[in-house]
Predict the structure of Acetylornithine/succinyldiaminopimelate/putresci ne aminotransferase.
Amino acid sequence: MTSDFLLYQAQTTPHPLAMEVSHAEGCYVYDTNNKAYLDFVAGVSACSLGHRHPKVVKAIKDQLDKYMHVMVYGEYIQEPAVELAKILADNLPKSLECTYLVNSGTEAIEGALKLARRATGRSQIIAAHHAYHGNTMGSMSVMGYEERKQAFRPLIPDVNFITFNNTEDLKQITYKTAAVILETIQGGAGFIEPHANYLTKVRTRCDEVGALLILDEVQPGIGRTGKLFGFEHYNCIPDILVTGKGLGGGMPIGAFTASRSMMQTLQEFPKLGHITTFGGHPVIAAAALATVKEITESNLMADALEKEVLFRSLLVHPLITEIRGRGLMLAAITPSAEIATELILKAQGKGLILFWLLFEQKAIRLTPPLTITEEEIIEGCGIILDILDDISAKF
């Protein structure tokens, strides 16, 4: 299977981890030798409730017994999509009442950028250095890493960049600005939180000049930071909210949410201002609805903050210089990229799944399912510390 994987399936790097997966359950992934791997990554923050959560699986099976895809998005009334949009509105500020369901986080970013330009009649977008919002052309245009973009230029024009947490840069937001797009917590850059009321100050500046604020919650959203949406920690309500990853409970999804009046600008002049064939797919929407219900009706969000405390108390080691993030969106920072890579690769050999962050090469991603137990956290952190002890012994 490995040779076929490398031959027939397009690869993203020269050296994939290449674990051959047999099945997954709860917080464990199993290979074809039936070896269990404790999952501290959750499909890169996507499997909020772990693997094959019973309520998500039941929702999928129940919907499969009714119908799958029947019509392009927005034409037919399909209960799972309607109920998903409604439960999001019920758990968001009143100004965020209308949701457009799409297929991925990057498509949701594309829709949000289009919506901002359409609603304001302006073209300029302000993004942040070291930002990651996806990998399609529009999303890449607001990515803050030139080395990742230069091979694919030209990208969309009229995009300027500011430095996250730098309030002096907010002067660059002007009456020409359609929208400022920021990750609520910068992900690929190393799980960097906003400091000193930064997002509140961005919100104020946007209001002063009539620019919209887009917050990308593809990673922090859906309970991962201890609240349903990360912005709830920072006294800042966006005009457009983007979600994905954990919303689907392991199924592919994205969404952008705004006021109804703003979203209506995509209906005419031209009609079909944003269209998708499979967005709002009933099976995926059913999985997402079950996921949001379970997270909002349980103690998982409060528990995520307690589990953060446990992670921070356990992961004390000379080769861990810092733990960044909030809730179960955490990154352990090591002294070098080499140490981070050695830890990740050795952990897989010892039955623990860790992973890199996209840009901060010294970081170890710690984004387990919200359902992870304290015992599993202790087990996984013990493996990390043992490996770091082995690495330390070489110095």
Remarks:
- DSSP finds 13 helices and 14 strands in the chain.
- The mean pLDDT is 97.
- The domain at 56-297 is CATH 3.40.640.10 (Aspartate Aminotransferase; domain 2).
- The first strand starts at residue 21 and ends at 25.
